[in-house]
């Protein structure tokens, strides 16, 4: 905050990004852009506002991301992950690029769900189905890898729950116990309070509804219904950690990503 209409430039620093670093940065910008659209759409749906303009913007954005020209757009950055090219770059940078692609696939999946829900006319359904098919074709490897990661995460979460033990003798003591075994050593008067990590927070509903996806290679037709599940023969989106049905129906449009 200042009374002046300008600020003094104290220092100028120039940095040169490598092609791989530029790719990671471009992906992160696109991810944040899609997060913003997702949040706006969810908020508008929650407030029962007009979504026509948002639908146009959402449709344009995800179309440009999914069906980019050959050797252009976001997909061109996959070249860095090819065995013949990846040897030139560090493992850390390649890992960051892979994670960025996985995050992009996650937010694209949720945006496609919103796209289906916001369709202003049934006449646009074929265009939406084409987007889903292109998404599955152009990001097949990322979808499969991401769904595999989620499946492993769900198994791990089911086998181990992190808990905090608030004890009369040692209130700061923490312990982990198996979700299948509720007997814990120590004082019988201890009180258990579950520590809600991201996997137990509001985003778990969103993950269960939108993100647990696996690709089943079959024929080429698919459709996306309003529940967020792609059905058909091209791919099957398997539900993972589903939220309570009653809660889900009451808060259908309350799932938004914090960004």
UniProtKB/TrEMBL annotation:
GO terms for biological process: small GTPase-mediated signal transduction. GO terms for molecular function: guanyl-nucleotide exchange factor activity; small GTPase binding. Residues 249-259 have a biased composition (Basic and acidic residues). Residues 235-259 are annotated as: Disordered. One of its GO terms (cellular component) is cytoplasm. Residues 235-248 have a biased composition (Polar residues). This is YLR422Wp-like protein. It comes from Saccharomyces cerevisiae (strain AWRI1631) (Baker's yeast).
């Amino acid at each position: 905050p200042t009374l002046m209409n300008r600020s003094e430039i104290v220092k100028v620093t120039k940095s040169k990004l490598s092609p791989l670093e530029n790719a990671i940065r471009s992906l992160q910008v696109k991810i944040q852009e899609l997060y913003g659209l997702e949040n706006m759409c969810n908020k508008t749906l929650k407030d029962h506002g007009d979504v026509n303009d948002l639908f146009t913007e959402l449709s344009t954005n995800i179309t440009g991301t999914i069906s980019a020209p050959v050797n252009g757009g976001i997909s061109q950055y996959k070249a860095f992950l090819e065995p013949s090219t990846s040897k030139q770059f560090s493992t850390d940078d390649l890992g960051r690029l892979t994670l960025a692609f996985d995050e992009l696939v996650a937010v694209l999946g949720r945006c496609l769900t919103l796209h289906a829900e916001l369709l202003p006319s049934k006449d646009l359904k074929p265009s939406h189905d084409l987007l889903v098919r292109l998404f599955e074709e152009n990001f097949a490897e990322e979808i499969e890898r991401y769904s595999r990661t989620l499946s492993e995460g769900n198994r791990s979460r089911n086998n181990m729950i992190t808990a905090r033990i608030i004890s009369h003798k040692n209130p700061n003591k923490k312990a982990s116990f198996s979700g299948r075994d509720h007997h814990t050593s120590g004082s019988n008067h201890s009180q258990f309070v579950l520590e809600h990590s991201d996997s137990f927070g509001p985003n778990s509903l969103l993950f269960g509804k939108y993100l647990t996806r696996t690709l089943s290679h079959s024929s080429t037709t698919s459709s996306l219904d309003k529940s967020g599940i792609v059905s058909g023969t091209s791919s099957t989106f398997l539900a993972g950690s589903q939220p309570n049905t009653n809660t889900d129906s009451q808060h259908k449009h309350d799932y938004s990503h914090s960004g």
